[in-house]
Write a structure and sequence with these properties.
The protein is mostly helical. It has 10 helices and 2 strands; from the N terminus they run ααααββαααααα. It has a two-stranded antiparallel ribbon. α1 packs across α4 and α3 crosses α4.
């Protein structure tokens, strides 16, 4: 159970690293101090240092105690940065915080029934949009629509099929 608690707290630290762009910044830096990383990311050093401590403890980032520098291992960037596209697993950790924020509402539902209104999830649509942008846009034309025989045999040329970004007006 201690591992479950530690991993859930690490997921929140990863979510913070994702949402603040910390991983994206670190992927482009040589080993750096928390001051240097914070300055490069445009973030407050104290908070960067705290989350780097948690991420170091969790094995997500590396720390050199002699140089007092942190680095994002090259092998971690492919699943933690926005450049990873559909392979960015850090984006998924945002949902831990979303569910944590409504935990007491869900406890109430267990006891009283009912539901939790979508207004209780103010960042859900933005975070889901980020995930679908990376996954749907990347796979819609080449993979997803090809799974539909009626779509594949359609006279509607694939080059004119909308992407999710176009449908949302973000492209």
């Amino acid at each position: 159970m201690v591992g479950v608690v530690n991993d859930s707290l690490l997921a929140l630290a990863i979510s913070l690293g994702h949402q603040t762009g910390l991983f994206d910044t670190m992927a482009g830096l040589e080993p750096s101090t928390s001051d240097e990383i914070a300055a490069a990311a445009g973030l407050q050093e104290r908070y960067v240092r705290e989350v780097l401590g948690a991420l170091t403890t969790g094995g997500v980032v590396s720390y050199d105690p002699e140089a007092r520098t942190y680095s994002l291992p090259a092998e971690h960037a492919p699943v933690l940065t926005r450049a990873a596209g559909v392979d960015n697993l850090a984006a998924l950790t945002q949902f831990v915080g979303i569910l944590g924020a409504v935990e007491q509402d869900i406890v109430r539902c267990f006891r009283e029934g009912g539901g939790v209104p979508s207004s209780s999830y103010p960042t859900f649509q933005r975070q889901l949009g980020e995930l679908t942008k990376d996954t749907v846009d990347a796979t819609l034309l080449d993979s997803t629509l090809g799974l539909c025989p009626a779509c594949a045999s359609s006279s509607w040329p694939a080059s004119t099929w909308p992407t999710s970004a176009a449908a949302r007006g973000t492209r």
